[in-house]
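Cont'd.
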Amino acid sequence: MKIEPITGRYAHIELEGREHRVYFEEAGEGIPLLCLHTAGSDGRQYRAVLNDAEIARRYRVIAFDMPWHGKSSPPAGWEEEDYRLTTGRYTGMIMSVARSLGLERPVVMGCSIGGRIVLDLALSHARELRALIGLQSGAFVERYYDPAWLDHPEVHGGRACGAVAYGLMSPLSPRHEVWETVWHYMQGGPGVFTGDLHFYQVEGDVRQRIGEIDTSLCPLYLLTGEYDYSASPRDTQAVVDRVKGAKLTIMKGLGHFPMSENPEAFLGYLRPVLREIHG
Amino acid sequence: MIERIAQLVNADPAIVRWGRHMNETFMVEVGETQYLVTVAAGRIEKVERGPFVMRSWRFAIRASAEHWEKFWRDPPPPGWHDLFALLRRGEVAFEGDQRVLMAHLLYLKLALASLRKR
C-alpha cells in the first residue's frame, strides 16, 4: 500500500465577516508555497506538486479549496444567494488564508483565475509576498461562450463543465490525467464555475493596471501551456510586454491545466523556477 | 471525410456512452457542403450529404473546410484542437438550439475529434 505524504485539514476562517470552513492540504517544509486552483475545480489539481520530493525538501506546499469548491463548504445561508467571485473577494480570501495559516511571505502560485489574481496580488500585496507564479496568466479574456448554460436545469452541469474543461487541455497530455482533471470539474456545485467565470470574463479586468507592477518588489514568473486558448501564449506575452522584469516560459505540449493534465511535464518547468526563488 | 464519423464513433463504446441520451439530428457544415448527422442513443445512424430541401435540424456547427482540416489533423495544432478553441477564434458558428448542443457537448467534441483517427 502506498500512502501519499499529504495532510488534509479544515481551517475555520472568517471571510467578509462570515465563518467559513476551508479545506487545505499540505506537504513539505520550508518556504510557504500557496497554490490556487482554477475556476470550478479544487486543490486536487496540485496533487503532483504536493507529492514531489524535491519541492518538499525546500517548500511547505499548501493547496486550499476555495469556499464553495472541493471539500470547502459554502458559508451558512448559501442557499439564498448566487455565488460570484470578484477581484476584491478573491485577493482578500488569499491574504486571509495566508494570515490564518501563519504563512510568512509566501510564494503564491495560481492557475487560470489564479493566474489572473497573481497579477492583482503583484499590484496590491507585493511587499508581503516572496514571489508570484502565474500559470496560464492573462490580463483579461472576453466572453466567447455563454457560461449561463453551465448552470441550467436542462443541461447537466457536471457534464457541461467537464466538457468545457476537457477541450482546454492538450491532445498530447496523458489521457488518465486529462480525465482526472475532467472529473474534478464534473464534481463542482451548481453555479460555482459560472460564479468564478464572472471574475475571469467580466469583473477581473486588469489590463489597465498591469503596467504598474513592480517586479523588483516581488518577482513574477509566468508559465503558459501552448495548447491553451483561454489564456493563450499570446495573452501571457501581452502581459510580459507590459510588465518589466516578468519572466515568461512557454510550456510545450501543455494546455490550460498544466499541473493536473500533465504533472510530470509541468514539474520539469516548475522545479527550476522554485530553485531560483529559493536561491 | 466526415462520412467516416459513423464507423469511428459506433466502434468506440467510450464515445457512444457519452451520447447515450442523445437522439437528435444536427448539421455540420464544412465550407459550402452540408451534412446532417442523425444520432440514436449515442450511435450515429446516418450521415447525409446535402444540399437539403426543407430539412429540420436541432443545431448546426459551421466552419470553413480549411478550419475543419486543421481541427482534424493528428495531432491538431495548438489553438485548433477543440470546438471551443475554434469558437474563441471566431472560426466556428453554433446555430439553432444551444441548450441541446451544450447538453451533449462532451459527446460532440469526442465524436467530431474521432475523425483524427487514421
